[in-house]
């Protein structure tokens, strides 16, 4: 399954990398690509292992706002 998550609060490439790494650490995430310019993440995940709420929680825990 693939989902696009809006992320706000990223101001630099370090923020982008932090959000991306947080998503990649979620069990069941197959790939995650975060765009600073678009303020979003495209995440491919196994819906049997992860849920959209898990992905948003990881972004929030990393210090950003997930919408």
Descriptive overview:
With 67 residues, the chain is α+β, with helices and mostly antiparallel strands. The chain contains two helices and four strands. Strands 2-3-1-4 form a four-stranded antiparallel sheet. Strand 2 and strand 3 form a beta hairpin. It is globular, with a radius of gyration of 10 Å.
Biggest sheet architecture: 4 strands, antiparallel
Category from helices, strands and their pairing? alpha+beta
Please compute the radius of gyration using only Cα atoms.
10 Å
Low-confidence stretches: none
Number of strands: 4
Judging by the overall fold, what is the CATH architecture? 2-Layer Sandwich
Into how many domains do the coordinates divide?
Answer: 1
Shape assignment:
globular
Summarize the helices and strands and which ones pair or pack.
Blueprint: E1 2-8, H1 13-24, E2 29-35, E3 40-45, H2 52-61, E4 65-66
Q: What's this model, at a glance?
A:
With 67 residues, this protein is α+β, with helices and mostly antiparallel strands. The chain is 33% helix and 33% strand. The longest helix is centred in the first third of the chain and has 12 residues, at 13-24.
